[in-house]
Amino acid sequence: MELRELREKAMKLPLSPGVYIMKNDKGGIIYIGKAKALKNRVSQYFGSQRSHAEKVRQMVSNVCDFDYILCSSEFEALVLECSLIKQHRPKYNILLKDDKGYSYIRISGDEWKSLSFALQKADDGAEYLGPYISSWAAKNAVDGARRVFGLPSCGKSFPRDCGKGRPCLNYYIKQCCAPCSGRVTLKEYSERVEAAVDFLKKGDSASVKLMTEKMNEAAEKLDFELAARLRDRINGVKKITQKQQVVAASIPEQDAVSMMTEGSDACFAVLRFSGGRLYDKEDFLVRDVGRETDPAFARAEFIKRYYTIRGSIPPVVTLDGAPEDEELLLEWLSGQRGKRVRFVYPQKGEQMKILEMCRRNAAEKLAQSRGHLGHELSALDELAGLLGLSSPPEFIESYDISNLMGSENVAGMVVFKNGRPYKSSYRRFAIKGFSGQDDYASMHEVLTRRFEEYFKNKDSGEGFGRLPDLILLDGGKGQVSAVRPVLEGFGLDIPLFGMVKDGKHRTRAVTDEGREISITSKRQAFTLISTIQDEVHRFAIGYHRTARKKKSLSSSLTGIEGIGKERASALLSAFKTVKRIKEADLDELMQVNKMTRAAAEAVYRHFHGNGNARKNADEKMEE
User: Fold this and answer.
1) Across the strands, what pairs with 272?
2) Domain segments of the chain as ranges
3) Tens digit of each residue's pLDDT (9 = 90 or more) over 452-510
4) Domain 559-622 belongs to what topology?
């Protein structure tokens, strides 16, 4: 069917709850959704495509027909939607890969035993601990045991490699006993492995108790070297246990869910707590979510998919924002669990710390998938929350004015992409509309020229043809007030803030026309804004100094007979410095654009004295 026919069919649907099923030209199911009123929801897909996200437009372009199932309530439609999606796994629904399987800790069966993580048991003579339902927990347990008991994590084989190499960094930071160096006996190494296995089997409290007894026995026997080693291991176990706990959560069982977006991709992170301790962490990368996608819709879709593949549902789910159909989701989750479930949206305290940790994990995973650093995405996310932006800004433009008592009035524009300087998009402006010092008028002129260029080049989507997600001006409310009419005049809705410095010229806040927002308590956002403000100031003042130097050099040349501004500018463009102009011979001077023989001789005489120019010319002719 064509789009018009699909819309006509959709307009005949009832205003009843139900599930709609989109199909392609081969009859395959490509999308399943639920609706409170089928007619209203389905007809939206086949109306104007400009308001849709790119993923929705792609899906609609592949729809050739649709089917529907009426339900008695929206809740019944939600339950049916989850069931059908799990059964058919349509291409355009958010799908999560359920790679949760059993994991094991492997203890090799050779003389010099080693600890490793394994996904499957093998008949290889090794001992396997497990199964563990959380691969993250199993990997952490292996890493922790290696560090605490000083066991190697490299790929060397012992005793083959004993005494054949120098110890690596892990030895010097006391995280490996370095059997490769030959500094540890088999007996001592085996004792370490035995203690590590005991720790993995019995847990931290039993292991600490046993090691404490052995430490006391060693001390009584005056074996202080062994007692010291046991003391260090006890401290190591306690330290790793504290890290596992992370925070002393007052709610015994809960999940924390956070969403981070960058461009068209998103990452959902889930931290799972039981007994007040973190016991599992999962990350889910979702491609082609689209910047236009409503975060509440994406969050609701993830919750439905996640708790469809995960059987255990906690009494509390901590979220970084409200999902779409909140009450409906809570009713569904409570029904799945058999007991009441509630959502928590913390703003401070212990639960906020848990949520921030979850967001950092999501940011790190997403950043790695896109070749960035996690702290950059975290800083942008923190900045978005501080300024009330709907999503972290991908492109930030910043502007600064530089002049000296109104002379050589210039401006610099720097661009940060995903938290990093994007130098290919930096631009410089010479103020042309007036002379003298007026930072507000200068800022108004620069932003006007910038967005005039946008409308000339917007089809390219690059450079001036791309709109920023955030504009930061070096200055306070006055600069913001000067630029706001520019945006309104062009019909642009771009977040606009000024960057305010303290008496020591350090960034302390951001401001719009009505309020000042302190950023000193937000470490990552503070660092990012300070970096942007320092960079735009450096760029603007660098351009100002270049302009002043060029004018000064040009003035030194315009004093020569026959050399005006244009010829002086041409000489500087060709030779770059006055020193190189002085060293040039007559032929080289004459080859410069706009230079005549008389002008070239005048320049040569200026630097070399009378008579030298003619002598130089005669010598050239003789050659």
Assistant:
1) 255, 280
2) 3-88, 103-245, 253-371, 395-547, 559-622
3) 999 999 888 888 999 999 999 988 888 999 999 999 999 999 999 999 887 777 788 88
4) DNA polymerase; domain 1 (1.10.150)
